[in-house]
């Protein structure tokens, strides 16, 4: 059996057996393929792209309607053709997700914890702040107290200012004291109690099970990958990787098991992405259209993904640069 046939079997199996949400998959396509090319695309293009993953016309229309209702997308109609674009309010969230998926590096930990005391907030504001802090990786370790080991202080400061809560919460910096021989074990139990360590491990391992064989097949240089397959692989890869990363608090490696699978998952994602992005773009650009015509050139941020992308196809390179 050829490499292309084997890969198609895997793609078909994932599409058939894994639970795919139309709204989530459309968000993936917007973040991965549309964001840095103007942020808008025709409904007809979306319908054609989503058909590759088992979604019919009606399912796509229902999904984009939900995304518009929740202010992720907005729509424009020119003649009888509808176009959808990323809203101004959701753009920052797409860009944050972009950083997490393609550009995040394992950061060094200064061995200090950031603690947020929320006892001065009313119930509604407390729930709002808790949700936003969880996005930054914080967990509720006690009543009115959230914690994270070495957060991005600039992001935290910006969040508190944006929510107008800078004068309503107290931020502490704390250090773990190794008073007893079993202190490390105690910290490990605390982490598992308050952060989804075991659930994340299972999700990373499932991700590796799905995509590792594709990675091995792609290393075989004796056969060209079909552009439509490349687009399917790239979209499914980022779709599943994104869903894990957005739940991963990115805890320092020192606090995680030595065989933490996130490292292998990132390496695999980078290798597959760099292998398929070019033919995937070729297919995407052959289908996707905006109100002005073909998709515009990709921005410089796109080319910085996973440490830098390099196009080898002269025609595609000319179309994108």
From TrEMBL:
One of its GO terms (biological process) is DNA-templated transcription. Residues 107-178 form the Transcriptional repressor PaaX-like central Cas2-like domain. Residues 22-89 form the Transcriptional repressor PaaX-like N-terminal domain. Residues 195-284 form the Transcriptional repressor PaaX-like C-terminal domain. Signal peptide: none annotated. It comes from the Bacteria. InterPro entries: PaaX-like_central, PaaX-like_N, PaaX_C, PaaX_trns_reg, WH-like_DNA-bd_sf. Pfam families: PaaX, PaaX_C, PaaX_M. PANTHER family: PHENYLACETIC ACID REGULATOR-RELATED TRANSCRIPTIONAL REPRESSOR, TRANSCRIPTIONAL REPRESSOR PAAX. This is Phenylacetic acid degradation operon negative regulatory protein PaaX. It comes from Acinetobacter lactucae. The gene is paaX.
């Amino acid at each position: 059996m050829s490499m292309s046939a084997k890969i198609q079997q895997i793609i078909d199996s994932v599409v058939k057996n894994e639970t795919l949400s139309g709204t989530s998959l459309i968000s993936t396509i917007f973040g991965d393929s549309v964001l840095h090319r103007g942020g808008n695309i025709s409904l007809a293009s979306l319908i054609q792209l989503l058909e590759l993953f088992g979604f019919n016309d009606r399912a796509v229309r229902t999904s984009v309607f939900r995304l518009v209702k929740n202010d992720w997308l907005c729509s424009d109609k020119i003649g009888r053709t509808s176009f959808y674009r990323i809203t101004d309010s959701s753009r920052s969230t797409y860009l944050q997700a972009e950083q997490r998926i393609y550009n995040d590096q394992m950061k060094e930990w200064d061995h200090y914890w950031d603690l947020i005391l929320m006892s001065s907030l009313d119930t509604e504001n407390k729930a709002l702040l808790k949700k936003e802090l969880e996005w930054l990786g914080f967990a509720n370790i006690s009543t009115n107290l959230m914690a994270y080991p070495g957060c991005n202080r600039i992001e935290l400061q910006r969040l508190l200012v944006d929510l107008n809560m800078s004068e309503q919460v107290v931020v502490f910096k704390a250090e773990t004291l190794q008073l007893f021989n079993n202190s490390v074990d105690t910290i490990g139990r605390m982490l598992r109690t308050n952060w989804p360590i075991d659930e994340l491990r299972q999700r990373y391992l499932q991700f590796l099970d799905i995509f590792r064989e594709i990675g091995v097949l792609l290393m075989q240089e004796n056969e060209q990958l079909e552009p439509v397959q490349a687009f399917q692989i790239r979209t499914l890869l980022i779709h599943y990787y994104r869903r894990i990363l957005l739940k991963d608090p990115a805890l320092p490696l020192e606090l995680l098991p030595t065989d933490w699978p996130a490292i292998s998952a990132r390496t695999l994602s980078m290798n597959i992405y760099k292998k398929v992005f070019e033919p995937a773009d070729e297919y995407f650009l052959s289908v996707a259209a905006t109100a002005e015509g073909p998709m515009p050139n990709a921005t410089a941020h796109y080319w910085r993904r996973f440490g830098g992308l390099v196009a080898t196809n002269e025609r595609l390179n000319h179309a994108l640069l």
